[in-house]
Amino acid sequence: MKTIITACSQNLSGSRASLLATLRTLLAVPWPSQRDVRAWLQLLAVLQWVLSFLLLGTVSLLLLVYLVFTSFWPISALYLAWVIFDWDTPEKGGRRLPCLRRWPVWRHFRDYFPVKLVKTHELSPSHNYIIGSHPHGILCVGAFCNFVTGSTGFAEMFPGIRPSLTTLAGNFRLPLFREYLMSGGLCPVTRRAIGYLLSKNGTGNAVAIVIGGAAESLSCRPGITTLILKNRKGFVRMALQHGAYLVPSFSFGENDLFRQVVFEEGSWMRSIQQRFQKMMGFAPCVFYGRGLTSVRSRGFLPYARPITTVVGEPVTVPKIEDPSRETVDMYHELYVRSLLKLFNENKTKYGLSEADELRIV
């Protein structure tokens, strides 16, 4: 009997010793710091945004097509009926969800780069505005973060102003992706959609347009800022027709987020890019960023580079229903001067040198 009791005591003592040894081992393992946790949250926030932008529409379309040939075909039929019924909604102000704009994940998205919004002048809620967003970059990170999410404090800086970012109309033909875009306050970059926001939605509307468009992304590279603006005058005509003030904005650091393979003018690859851009509305850029697990590896995530979006002084625009070409040219010139002034006054503050120039072609 004594032998059994002694053996049990030794086993219990051994178990306690093993348990204590295991606890010591676990406690010795370094736990992730708050800084590491924040870094991973920021990386995941950017990852979900990039995947949503690049894959959500295409994957949703393929999934709905696949469901047509299965027993779940009513899902595709019902969604098709909904899209037909809801076809004009993007052109009529969309369907924004304030809760999505306040989504906490956007704060992590902002802090990854980080993105900052700088106000230089007041915007009165008694007027409507067209904000020119420059440069386009690869994925328009600065424009998205400032004019779609509430993470940089646009609503606090410009009380009473409702920002709406415009994007390609074709994006609103993709299933589920259209709902995602509208919930953030995006609308098609069409005359009808912009005209609705500027004429039938009261005052205090600010329509942000990335004026250079897809063609500008072909010249996106660090150290060189080239804007396609000289012959882009449709936004000025829209501003005159609706009496909307023109506001220049520039995102310093936008061109530093990716590395792009830039083909020389006249090369066959450059010609293919330009033809594709004219036919499809967007340019097939060859670019890369950082990898998912390492900054040194190549991948599709943007590099963590600071972006500072400076909103400049509004150009007062009268309302002229049928402006002449001379009038459009005059206000276009005023806008370009205001943009150049904004760039030159702020470039040394936000990462550029005094010698850096803004090329307008």
UniProtKB/TrEMBL annotation:
GO terms for cellular component: endoplasmic reticulum membrane. The chain crosses the membrane at residues 63-85. Its EC number is 2.3.1.-. The keyword Kinase does not apply. InterPro entries: DAGAT. GO terms for molecular function: O-acyltransferase activity. The keyword Transmembrane applies. Its main location: endoplasmic reticulum. It holds the Pfam family DAGAT. GO terms for biological process: lipid metabolic process. CDD domains: LPLAT_MGAT-like (cd07987). It is a multi-pass membrane protein. Keywords: Acyltransferase, Endoplasmic reticulum, Lipid biosynthesis, Lipid metabolism, Membrane, Transferase, Transmembrane, Transmembrane helix. It is found in: Endoplasmic reticulum membrane. It comes from the Eukaryota. Belongs to the diacylglycerol acyltransferase family. This is Acyltransferase. It comes from Asarcornis scutulata.
